[in-house]
Task: structure prediction
Amino acid sequence: MKKIFITFLFFSSSVFSETSENIEFKNEQIGDMCFTTIDISVTEDWLKKEYELIEFNSYPNIRRQGFLMDMFYSNAGMGKSQWTEMDTRGIYIMSPGALYMEPLRYAESGMKPGWLLRVSIMNPASGDSCK
Result:
């Protein structure tokens, strides 16, 4: 049993370290709103995934008060200075705070490794949900 647990810890730490290297979160409270940006550095391995489930801060008010979400990509070679809006089909917020995405769909529509992807979410802040 101990070997299974150690194997699980090793596997999960390698998965989480890969995720943390190419996914960056930022939360900022602006008045009564919480503005979250999730930046993804697109890799070849990431584009091969059928789906990605990204957990982030819990937003207990999403079901009652709703949210606004938009997605952008950057491939102009200028880093994070220029973004183009893209279709949000295949991306969903799952309460209490997980983002479901379909990277393979983006690869099929032309997305390449090295691109940047940004998801922006705005929702009413409540309690310490925007920390």
Observations:
- The domain at 23-124 is CATH 2.60.40 (Immunoglobulin-like).
- The longest helix spans residues 2-22.
- Helices lie at 2-22, 44-47, 62-65, 103-108.
- The first strand starts at residue 23 and ends at 30.
